Fold this sequence. Notes:
The protein is 28% helix and 27% strand. The chain is built from 11 helices and 16 strands. The strands form 3 sheets. Strands 3, 5, 6, 7, 8, 15 and 16 form a 7-stranded mixed sheet that branches. A 6-stranded parallel sheet has the order 11-10-9-12-13-14, with helices on both faces. The protein has a 3-stranded antiparallel sheet with strand order 2-1-4, with no helix packed on it. Strand 13, helix 9 (277-282) and strand 14 (286-289) form a beta-alpha-beta unit. The model has no long low-confidence stretch (mean pLDDT 95).
Amino acid sequence: xxGTLTASFERFGGPAVLDLVDRPAPVPVADQVLVRVRACGVxxxxxxxxxxxxxxxxxxxxxxxxxxxxxVVELGDRVAHTRVGDRVLVRAHISCGRCDYCxxxxxxxxxxxxxxxxxxxxxxxxLVAVPERGLVPLPEVVSHVDAAATQIAFGTAWHALVRxxxxxxxxxxxxxxxxxxxxxxxLQVAAGCGATVIAAAGSAARVARCLAAGAxxxxxxxxxxxxxxxxxxxxxxDYVCETAGGEIFQDALxxxxxxxxxxxxxxxxxxxxxxxxxxxxxxxxxxxGARRATTADVRSVLRLVGEGVLTxxxxxxxxxxxxxxxxxxxxxxxxxxxxxLTP
Length: 343
């Protein structure tokens, strides 16, 4: 293999800094496998990294792409369990497998993890070399595109609502940013828990899409506050899956019932917010951070996608050379669901 088409950037900035370049094909060594990328999900973190606002130390030049699905095409000499031709998902968080967090099944918190698209090269390319331990077998019934749209969206929603919050049947869940990748996934996961689901999004059209996707009720938070919307719909909510941050975080906190729980999974509308601690303890509100999915979470949601229980909401699938336009569209919040690139 001589070269691989790659979308990368050498400086931080807008979508225009993304360039298509031909790079030498990586060579897998030791326990690495070479994966031909068939699909790669696009995330808001990609935009933050490209702008230089991610709070990660990013090496330059850099290749983005956290959600990689593809086929194994070459093996390092110490690969033990993988074969050429295997269909795989590359974990967005490749844990070490040895630390205390990994041993107790909390590999999402591994401090030594490799993060494709963050501290190592990502999937905006045709070929990528990753450690064998970072692979998850892809069920035959799950397409590469669906797999690339599943890991972070459904994995995060599952980790937040099922593993951490343990949302019970009969509860009410408010999902903010409900038209985005994680938001659309959270609508399905919350419904699968047996909850009544309220979708909050930034326009009447996006709310309508959420209702069509199965939400029980909707709030356009450009037209009314979340508190007013929740009051219009019924009583304060038991859970909030908060994907936005900023003023939406504060408004969603006020919409919680006494004893309610907010699970924070994103903050692209504002990362630093004021917090009234008196309100927290007087109303016994719990605010829980959900970092990312564990490997067990990812395996669970892949299985459910394969069984047809969960269905990825895909906005558009675009070829890698159109990466600049995809970033522009995602940045303008033009779309519903997940954007996917195909190298």
